[in-house]
Amino acid sequence: MAAISTIRFIETKDQVVFLTFDDGPEPIFTPLALAALKRYQSQATWFILGQQAEQNMEILTDICEAGHDIGVHSYNHVSLTGLPLGQIIQQLERTKALINKATGRFWPFFRPPNGAYNNKVLEAAELTGFLWNVMWSVDPRDYRSSPQQIINHILMNLHPGTIIVLHEVTPSTTQALPILLQEIGKRGYRARSLSQYLTEDK
To answer: pLDDT per residue over 3-30, tens digit each?
Structure first.
């Protein structure tokens, strides 16, 4: 069994960034995000909640068919650090199974709710088959920022390999995304999915 690695950015000289969306899939935001990503020939990675997936299985399929990655956030956004090992595994396995049901695939990417983890959480993720505990290097705090603030913060922190955390249930993010993708492109960057740069053999 391969050991899980925690990452906050990806070492690369390519002018690429990695957009990640937490807390979905969501019936309004996700289709809008998919449309914007398609328009700007970009890819992203979703970190989904199992309870959201159960209500939006077709959207999970759409994410996969559009060429994006789907990682596990948890089942219901509970703080995993306070749970027994078996319950953490249950959170991850349940969500992983929903992804497989909708897509027939498994991506080895995990992100704990609120980015909170300890050795027990990492052990559970490793036992569940995950290779990457994906944190972030840029957080525009989209849940309390205006669309322009989100865009400005990300553009000020553009570097090759940056991992950006965004949230699906935030209206500001929905409004910011098309402009953000356009501005990233003007600066010579492209948004890519994690699987395009992280391989299972590490």
So the answer is: 999 999 999 999 999 999 999 999 999 9
